[in-house]
Every structure is written in structure tokens, then in C-alpha cells.
Amino acid sequence: MPLVVPGIMSNNNSSSGSKEDWLSKLAGKKLGDQHDEISAGANFAKKDLPKDHRVVGPDSMSTMDHNPDRLNVHTDADGTVKDVKFG
User: Fold this and answer.
1) Which one of 16, 27, 57, 71 is most buried, counting C-beta atoms within 10 A?
2) pLDDT 10s digit of each residue in the chain, 87 long?
3) Dihedral of the CA atoms 43, 48, 62, 11 (nearest 10)?
4) Buried/exposed code over 25-45 (b: 16+ C-beta within 10 A; e: otherwise)
5) Backbone dihedral region of 9: left (phi > 0), alpha (psi from -120 to 50 degrees) or beta?
6) Mapped to the 3 state alphabet, what secondary structure does the chain carry?
7) Contact 21, 74 (CB under 8 A)
8) Of 16, 27, 81, which Cα lies nearest the Cα of 55?
9) pLDDT tens digits for 40-57?
10) Burial class of residue 22 (count of CB atoms within 10 Å of its CB; 0-12, 13-18, 19+)
11) CB under 8 Å to 10, separation ≥6 — which residues?
12) CA-based nearest residue to 29, from 74, 62, 71
């Protein structure tokens, strides 16, 4: 019988929400650093993202290390969120 430890090697990312949850919150929105930038064109403050996250633009370089708890927010050239992935 395999050893099952909740939260270890799980794909549901329950501590930070699921991919579907984050995609529904972020898709089509622009990110800003603080809440005061929301009125200036950003639709979502980066500080409201999980602690372990990174924003990846179309020409961004990123490490290939896999962290199942890290939220990767993929944006297009103008900063609009197109996709999110954990890893």
C-alpha cells in the first residue's frame, strides 16, 4: 500500500487554490503591483497572488525547476493574463 501524505505531490494545490480558480480570477486582466494601480488600468494587484508566484511574459526567461505550489501567471506583450499554471 502506498504512503499517502495530504498536500505532498498533490495536483490540487489546495493551499493556493486551483488553476481553474485563478484562471477565472485573472484571465483577460492586467496586473498591477498595488491596489492603487487598479484604478490606473491594472485589474488585479500582484500582492493578492499567492506568496509563491511568478509572472511570465512572452519574452521572459524563467528557470525550469518544478515547484508544484508556485503559480505561474502567463501574460501577453501588453501584460494581459492569458493563462496560469502551477509548477
Assistant:
1) 71
2) 444 444 444 444 455 789 999 999 999 999 887 766 665 566 888 889 999 999 999 999 989 999 999 999 999 998 899 999 999
3) -110
4) ebeeebbbeeeebeeeebebe
5) left
6) CCCCCCCCCCCCCCCCCCHHHHHHHHCCCEEECCHHHHHHCCCEEHHHCCCCEEEECCCCCCCCCCCCCCEEEEECCCCEEEEEEEC
7) no
8) 81
9) 566 888 889 999 999 999
10) buried
11) 68
12) 74
Q: CA 25, 34, 73, 52 torsion: positive or negative?
A: negative
Q: In the numeric block, which cell numbers belong to residue 24?
A: 477565472
Percent of residues, the chain, with pLDDT higher than 90? 53
Quick one: cell of 16?
A: 493556493
